[in-house]
């Protein structure tokens, strides 16, 4: 496992626009008032108006420590996505911007 500190800089291999976040073979899009994800991560289609916030957590008890992004609406987890640690914070920030624009 690699640990990245604030002093280290690295470049993410992803493409980010106002409407989509792409990395490797994964895509999360905001289209027609829905949040749609496709690829190796969980495939979801959620109305953006129902999303309140986005959080992530890591379970160190699992053999592979992969962060889980949780999309929450009205106190309920609407979807969970396993996203690599290198992308998790930037995906969370992007999703928070998308739901603020709704």
Summarize it.
The chain is of the alpha+beta class and 102 residues long.
Give an account of the 3D structure.
There is one protein chain. The protein has 102 residues and is α+β, with helices and mostly antiparallel strands. It contains 1 helix and 8 strands, in the order ββββββββα. The longest helix has 16 residues, at 85-100. The termini are far apart.
Keywords:
102 residues; alpha+beta; 1 helix
Question: How is the topology of this model organized?
Answer:
Layout lengths: L13 E3 L3 E4 L2 E6 L2 E5 L5 E4 L5 E5 L10 E6 L2 E7 L2 H16 L2
Roughly how many Å apart are the termini? 37 Å
Computed CA radius of gyration, to the nearest angstrom = 14 Å
* SSE succession: EEEEEEEEH
Shape: globular
Low-confidence stretches: 1-9
Alpha-beta classification? alpha+beta
Strands of the biggest beta sheet: in what spatial order? 1-2-3-4-5
Number of strands: 8
Strand content: 35-45%
Mean pLDDT: 87
Q: Enumerate how many helices there are, as a single number.
A: 1
Share of residues in helices: 10-25%
Q: Report on the biggest sheet.
A: 5 strands, antiparallel
């Amino acid at each position: 496992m690699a640990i990245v500190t604030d002093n280290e800089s690295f470049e993410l291999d992803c493409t980010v626009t106002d409407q989509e976040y792409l990395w490797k073979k994964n895509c999360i899009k905001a289209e027609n008032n829905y949040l749609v994800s496709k690829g190796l991560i969980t495939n979801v289609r959620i109305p953006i108006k129902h999303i309140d916030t986005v959080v992530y957590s890591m379970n160190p008890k699992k053999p592979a420590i992969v962060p889980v992004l949780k999309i929450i609406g009205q106190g309920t987890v609407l979807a969970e996505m396993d996203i690599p640690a290198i992308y998790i914070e930037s995906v969370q920030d992007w999703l928070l911007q998308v739901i603020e624009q709704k």
